[in-house]
Amino acid sequence: MDSSGKEKEAIQLMAEADKKVKSSGSFLGGMFGGNQKVEEACEMYARAANMFKMAKNWSAAGNAFCQAARLHMQLQNKHDSATSYIDAGNAFKKADPQGEAIKCLNAAIDIYTDMGRFTIAAKHHITIAEVYESELVDIEKAIAHYEQAADYYKGEESNSSANKCLLKVASYSAQLEQYPKAIEIYEQVGSNTMDNPLLKYSAKEYFFKASLCHFIVDELNAKLAVGKYEEMFPAFSDSRECKLLKFFLVALTMQKSRTVFIQVKEFDSISRLDQWLTTMLLRIKKTIQGDEGDLK
């Protein structure tokens, strides 16, 4: 059957499901298997949704899954309702408007938190954050959902997952020039990881990023911060990141940007600069010489 045939069959199933729902609400329907009719309607909506998916009619698929989710909730099938809302969200993500996807995912989150399933709720907050950062380009809202996910993960002692979310928050906060917030997170995650034998070498990256944020705000704070991180984590002192930071201190004192960029080039030749580091380094360059330009 081609896609148009699947779509027609899906529309017919939706109509049959609607009839079952209406009949279940009548007096006689309530007396004679009202709940069974609602359960059958749930199955029909789900089947229709999958047929719409095969026809690539994503909005119709999302709407059908939403109908199934509402009926599952009516039957107190919370898990099935949440699953249907997730299916609806995934369908709506492939169509416009993206807002419908977020509404469905939030509905699922509400159910999961009511059930005490905070790890699953956190996972779907991340999905919403990713929609905001990649599709809707609303970074403030993405940050809010990453923060909520981190809170849920922390409550479930999933500290590694919480840290991943917090690092996203720190990265975006720095981009939005919310440096104190970014610094606090990088220091927190750095402190947490430096005592972990498997993760301690990541600590130098987080202290490096915290230091860059300090440099953009205030030279004296940057100097004090670098010293504090060296004291907290002695391995940081011998790192290439720390040596680069100390060159920055010299350049800031002497107002010599050329010294910095020779060192940045050398650093980049070993560890390629990503977009975040490039942005922060350009801001430091502006601090040193008062204009922006190419780091290369």
Automatic annotation (TrEMBL):
Record keywords: ER-Golgi transport, Membrane, Protein transport, Transport
GO terms (BP aspect): intracellular protein transport; regulation of synaptic vesicle priming; SNARE complex disassembly; synaptic transmission, glutamatergic
GO cellular component: synaptobrevin 2-SNAP-25-syntaxin-1a complex; terminal bouton; vacuolar membrane
GO molecular function terms listed in the Swiss-Prot or TrEMBL record: soluble NSF attachment protein activity; syntaxin binding
Keyword presence, Protein transport: yes
Transcription regulation is among the record's keywords: no
Highest rank taxon of the organism: Eukaryota
SUPFAM superfamilies (UniProt xref): TPR-like
Membrane topology: Peripheral membrane protein
Predominant subcellular localization, coarse grouping: membrane
Localization per Swiss-Prot or TrEMBL: Membrane
PANTHER family documented for this protein: BETA-SOLUBLE NSF ATTACHMENT PROTEIN, SOLUBLE NSF ATTACHMENT PROTEIN SNAP
Family according to the record: Belongs to the SNAP family.
Stated role: Required for vesicular transport between the endoplasmic reticulum and the Golgi apparatus.
Protein name from the UniProt record: Beta-soluble NSF attachment protein
Organism: Sinocyclocheilus rhinocerous
